[in-house]
Specification:
Elements (H helix, E strand, L loop, with lengths): L16 H5 L30 H4 L19 E3 L6 E3 L1 E6 L1 H13 L7 H4 L4 E6 L6 E5 L2
Antiparallel strand pairs: 1-2, 3-4, 4-5
The structure holds zinc ion.
Length: 141
């Protein structure tokens, strides 16, 4: 049908801009302007968050603080039955008294070995609740 059709006469793509104009301007260089948009001393400042303590009042947790255990009965609030009680004490001899007794027995005399049992430093006091019989703690000197 088209026997004389020559493909060379029909370029597949139109010529580009550079091909049609020539070549890009080689001598064009960007002038060395000092870039005014960027300050040289620019330093990123981190955002300062306000302290959260100033906004909210301090939440004071009121805890019923029992007095520290002593050698004598202590008036306190039982943590188990939540009642105002005076603790029942029960004195006991610490295990260190027996150890000290044995050491004193072998090192010194027999009479001195009984001293740890007489000294208050080797007495510990167990505090219990008189109502619910809950063990409250042990006072150790
Ligand atoms: Zn109690």
């Amino acid at each position: 049908m088209y026997p004389n059709m020559n493909k060379s006469e029909m370029p597949s793509a139109p010529p580009t801009y550079l091909e049609s104009v020539g070549s890009a301007p080689i001598g064009f260089t960007t002038p060395m302007y000092p870039s005014p948009s960027v300050p040289p001393m620019y330093q990123p400042v981190p955002p300062s968050y306000p302290t959260s303590n100033t906004n909210q009042p301090n939440q004071v947790v009121i805890v019923q603080q029992n007095p520290p255990l002593a050698r004598t009965p202590v008036q306190m609030i039982c943590p188990a039955c939540k009642s105002q009680i005076i603790s029942t004490i029960q004195e006991d001899t610490t295990p260190s008294a027996y150890l000290c007794c044995a050491l004193t027995y072998f090192t010194s005399c027999c009479l001195c070995s009984c001293l740890p049992f007489c000294m208050d430093a080797f007495k510990m006091v167990h505090h219990t609740c008189p109502q619910c019989k809950t063990f409250l703690g042990t006072y150790k000197p």
